[in-house]
Amino acid sequence: MSSSTFSLASKVKLYNGHMIPQIQLGLYMMSGKEVLASVPWALAAGYRGFDSAQMYHNEAEAGQAIRKWLESSETRRARTSRGRTSGIRRSSPVPGSTSYDAVRKSIKRSVKACGLGYIDLFLLHSPYGGPEARLTSWKAIEDAIDDGEVRSGGVSNYGIEELMASNPRIKPAVNQIEVHPFNTQTAIRETCAKHGILVEAYGPLARAMRMKDPTILELAKKYACTPAQLMVRWSLQHGHVPLPKSARKERLIDNVKVGGFEISDEDVQRMDGLDEHLVTDWDPTDAD
């Protein structure tokens, strides 16, 4: 386990050399109004990674909030010649499709919606549609990278072996899956590690469904932290990129104050042992 002191400034390198923030704000189930408020709060607090998606219907608001923040007088001097700070990263999952053209158009739509010129990390959101659809959709991601619309590509909710067996021209840099102590996804994580694919952990707080678990409460007391901080720290010590979500200013700041303690190897293993395959949103494992 890592002994690193994690903060919102922590970054991790993808296999292709691009760096991404190791803690990012998830924008899942946030309204456009909530995003317009939460993203500036997060930027001011030090967040530099934001996870949106077409299905969230808030990409435009996320891009608008980032652009407005970049144009503010307090950040003007940090802008690059391309008109954005080099430290801000955005990811955006797009649904897969049986049509290559449909996926390419979908990618262009997201790039246009965010208004930032390109997207740092673009993911295929789900594995549904069958093998041909998955591989066709991935080719669209590869071509979007070649065309400069996307810097890195990845998948979400994938088992990954099928895609890697196809010998892709550009391999995925990230697999975004639900991971937390109550759904550890060990087999998928091990496969990703074998291929050098980073795991982004959505739902790292288990949607607050296990905050009163006795082991979580005991360890939070031991490390003088909140249950949310404990779960984020667990994710980081496993090498994941957690995407904690909150639309409340004080909570999105508090959740990521995880630099002042380190969970011991023994206690990490205790948390690993809480696994009950808890699926808090949807389970893609039945995809054909």
Automatic annotation (TrEMBL):
InterPro entries: AKR (IPR020471), NAD(P)_OxRdtase_dom_sf (IPR036812), NADP_OxRdtase_dom (IPR023210). The keyword Zinc-finger does not apply. Residues 73-99 are annotated as: Disordered. Residues 83-92 have a biased composition (Low complexity). Residues 31-275 form the NADP-dependent oxidoreductase domain. SUPFAM superfamilies: NAD(P)-linked oxidoreductase. Keywords: Oxidoreductase. Pfam families: Aldo_ket_red. The keyword Oxidoreductase applies. This is Prostaglandin F synthase. It comes from Apiospora phragmitis.
